[in-house]
Amino acid sequence: MKKTTLLFILFLGFINWSYGQCTNQDFQWPSFTVNISNAPGVQSIAIDNYADNEFSILTGIVPGETYTVTAAMYITVTESDATTVITHGANSVTFTAGTGVTSIYCFWTVNGICTGGGNTDIATNIECSTCTCTATSAPNAATTPTPINGATNIPIDSTDPTDLLITPFEWVDATSGNLADSYNLTLGITTSGADLGTITGATSGNGITYDWEYNTTYYWKVDAVNCFGTTTGTVWSFTTTSCTDSAPVAAITPTPVNGAIDVAIDTTDPTELLITPFLWADDTAGGAASSYSLSLGTTTSGNDIGTIDPVDNGDGVIYDWEYDTTYYWYIESTNCAGTSTGTVWSFTTEADPNLSVEQFNKTKFSLYPNPANDVIRIKSDAILDTVEIYNQVGQRVINLNSESIIDKSIKINNLNTGIYFMTITAGSQEQTIKFIKK
């Protein structure tokens, strides 16, 4: 049940260079909190962590007990605030849980300067070296599953199409014998109930995110664990509901509009050149899409640069955009019934503003504040004749003559958030200046 690695070649990554304080990772794996038993012996955190932008959350830590975390990578352990570092080091770290410390974060990197590594599965473990076992036998098996054994038409929650969800997975603890300290939930598509993967330290009542398929039978079991041993549970089954949607029709109404010119490049952060927004609409002739991918290129194929999958309608795209260049793009719309590939659209970016040296040198206009909220002011000694404001697709949204320009202040409170272009004329002088409406 390892996550799928997506192609995000249009985006840049970030590295935290603070030695040993590698706490900026933003992907939790396993995607659930791992419950650690108050018992001796090695316990698994995961069999497949990456030394790349990942962290794990562990609970069940007992103040005063001593723990060792091991993994073939660099480990940073923090308290539950994910900030206060308890210890860090390569391959193995040992610590004694302080007062009030009942959960920890483990951050995984290649080394102490927080370098991200490749997507290589690495086993991560924790061992309580001071815990003792008081149980006299392994626990009895859990009972009464939800979904009930043999259930059909189990719904798949596709609210987040990147994390399809079935919830809840529940069971009842045994009421006789020694109690379980934790449970391991395994899932499969064969009667072994384990060929897809295992959730160590699973909690009854949680849901599971996975690439669930419609009209498919899954098998699962819950193994009860205490410090004495593990009892393998009965294999249960359920069948997911069928897809009732019709396939989506290709997306329409793009922004930037097809064939648009002078599309602005936001250089506010010169290391992350931005064009925003990328918008489209669903064609209501088909079923609603549950997810989209956006492909981009400099050829009419529209995909030779790369693909963002998934992408949200209205997102911007960070890339090494070039001025005065034509780009091609298209949207793929997907739901449980299928995928439709959209028309290839195009747009051309603005000319490099730094090339208009002669025009810029003869003018004396500047804007402040920039970005602005409600009012933006023009700084100039010249008497202004006209002010025109255009949006990113070249539509004029404000047109003012000299009588309407009061104190060289322009009200922009009615504009939507985004990038705009103000063209100012004063006699023979003219200048176009980009600004951002917050």
From TrEMBL:
<feature type="signal peptide">
    <location>
        <begin position="1"/>
        <end position="20"/>
    </location>
</feature>
<protein>
    <submittedName>
        <fullName>T9SS type A sorting domain-containing protein</fullName>
    </submittedName>
</protein>
<dbReference type="InterPro" id="IPR026444">
    <property type="entry name" value="Secre_tail"/>
</dbReference>
<keyword id="KW-0732">Signal</keyword>
<dbReference type="Pfam" id="PF18962">
    <property type="entry name" value="Por_Secre_tail"/>
</dbReference>
<feature type="domain" description="Secretion system C-terminal sorting">
    <location>
        <begin position="367"/>
        <end position="436"/>
    </location>
</feature>
